[in-house]
Design a protein that fits this description.
The complex is a heterodimer of chains A (114) and B (114). Chain A has 114 residues and is mainly beta. Chain A contains no helices and eleven strands. Chain A is globular, with a radius of gyration of 13 Å. By secondary structure, chain B is mainly beta. Chain B contains no helices and twelve strands. In chain B, the strands form three sheets. In chain B, strands 2, 5, 6, 10, 11 and 12 form a six-stranded mixed β-sheet that branches. In chain B, a hairpin with a 5-residue loop joins β5 (31-38) and β6. Chain B starts with a strand and ends with a strand. The chains are: A mainly beta (114), B mainly beta (114). The interface between A and B is medium-sized, with 26 and 23 residues.
Chain lengths: 114, 114
């Protein structure tokens, strides 16, 4: 049990579909993150939200649209993705984005784009 | 931009052997250093971290890491591995003022044979 829950665990979608990934943390944290883990590449930070405000967009294409309605929930809306977007998407949370504390990760949502 | 290099992509060793995984980073200023571990089918979790003070850091499950500032390195060690140490290990760095925006290395898959 990680305290950070991601759904769905697996998702297959076509390039014209619209889908969303969901992340929920039960740790009382104020910061949430999306990371992308592709085969044979390091984890890439995508977005950071601190107290519901987006504080980092790491040059992510607009076909990925994050949403953070409150400090416990984070979404990643997906639209017109490309096959190269297939990857494991990891959500993480921490006390605050400006601290130097530990990140707590979810188990990830494995996305396959056909 | 800072980068993190992990020298070995795959390591295979027998139980009771010693383990050392290399990690080098490129940023020259103040850094915070982390090792995360991902056991098969599980989420990423923190193994140990270094912020300041004693450069030899002890973590969970008998792991330790040594920060050598002059070499920009933060190598992970364990004197005697167990089969349960089979996992993927990730080194991560953030700049002192950058909060929790971690830059990860590419990971090292460790297989411990019983």
């Amino acid at each position: 049990e990680t305290g950070v829950t991601q759904t769905p665990r697996h998702l297959v979608m076509g390039m014209t579909n619209k889908k969303s990934l969901k992340c929920e943390q039960h740790l009382g944290h104020n910061a949430m993150y999306w990371y992308k883990q592709s085969a044979k590449k390091p984890l890439e930070l995508m977005f950071v939200y601190n107290f519901k405000e987006q504080t980092e967009n790491n040059s992510v294409p607009s076909r990925f649209s994050p949403e953070c309605p409150n400090s416990s929930h984070l979404f990643l809306h997906l639209h017109t993705l490309q096959p190269e977007d297939s990857a494991l998407y990891l959500c993480a949370s921490s006390q605050a984005a400006d601290s130097t504390g530990e990140l707590f990760f979810g188990e990830g949502s494995r996305l396959t784009v056909l | 931009a800072q980068s993190v290099s992990q020298h070995n992509h795959h390591v295979i060793l027998s139980e009771a052997a010693s383990l050392e995984l290399g990690c080098n980073y490129s940023y020259g200023g103040t850094v915070n250093l982390f090792w995360y571990v991902q056991y098969p089918g599980q989420h990423l979790q923190l193994l140990l971290k270094y912020f300041s003070g004693d450069p030899l850091v002890k973590g969970i499950k008998g792991f330790e890491a040594e920060f050598i500032k002059s070499k920009f390195s933060f190598n992970l060690r364990k004197p005697s591995v167990q089969w349960s140490d089979t996992a993927e290990y990730f080194c991560a760095v953030n700049q002192g003022a950058a909060g929790n925006k971690l830059t990860f290395g590419g990971g090292t898959r460790v297989l411990v044979k019983p």
